[in-house]
Amino acid sequence: MKNGIVQLTLIGLTILLFGCTTVSQDDLIVSSPILEVVTYNKNIEPIIHNNCIICHSNPPENGAPMPLMNYENVKEAIQNRNLLSRISSEDPALLMPPGGPKLPQNLVELIVKWKEGGLIKE
Ligand code: HEC
Questions:
Q1: Of 28, 38, 40, 119, which has fewest CB within 10 angstroms of its CB?
Q2: Distance between CA atoms of 14 and 63, rounded to whole angstroms?
Q3: Cα(56)–Cα(66) distance, rounded to whole angstroms?
Q4: Candidates 86, 105, 114: which one to mutate for ligand 1, based on the most atoms within 8 Å of Cβ?
């Protein structure tokens, strides 16, 4: 019985300690190492879909200059529109998405790895 109360108190304290924190960038970082080949279909499309196409749609919205709707669009933006430096920039005037929050570092690294691996589609 006594043990039960101690356990309940510990559980309660744990919830108090961890339950009320806000979501930070750290929560979004998946810490599993990237071992496989990075491809557009598997890894990159979901990142762009979740973070960019609200503006980089086709036709683009909110003043964005080009769509990022498919493999060709994203490849072109990596090669000719500094996509990688725009998502890693420390300069708020350059950062994409505009006004942040900056993409979690592991996602930026995934895109870097995709480029280094030769921009494989699938
Ligand atoms: C809220 C709307 C919005 C979102 C979300 C957004 N962008 Fe943009 N993007 C813009 C606007 C507006 C511009 C043009 C002004 C500029 O270059 O800063 C732009 C420009 C760019 C450029 C430069 C294009 C060029 O020709 O110079 C790249 C690359 C880019 N965005 C990539 C991205 C990526 C990748 C994401 C997602 C991680 C993203 N953007 C999310 C609005 C957005």
A1: 28
A2: 46
A3: 6
A4: 86
Distance of alpha carbon 54 from alpha carbon 66, whole angstroms: 12
Whole-number pLDDT of residue 36: 83
Q: Tens digit of pLDDT for each residue in 28-38?
A: 666 666 568 99
Q: What rounded mean pLDDT belongs to the chain?
A: 87
- Supply the residue whose CA is at minimum distance from atom 26 of ligand 1: 81
Q: CB count, 10 Å around CB of 77?
A: 21
Burial of 32 (0-12, 13-18, 19+ CB in 10 A): exposed
Number of other residues whose CB lies within 10 A of the CB of residue 93: 6
For 95, the token pair is 């950062």
Q: Is 37 left (phi over 0), alpha (psi -120 to 50) or beta?
A: beta
54 CA from centroid of ligand 1 (Å):
10
Q: Is 62 in the pocket of ligand 1 (CB under 6 A)?
A: yes
With a 6 Å cutoff on the Cβ, whether 56 touches ligand 1 is yes
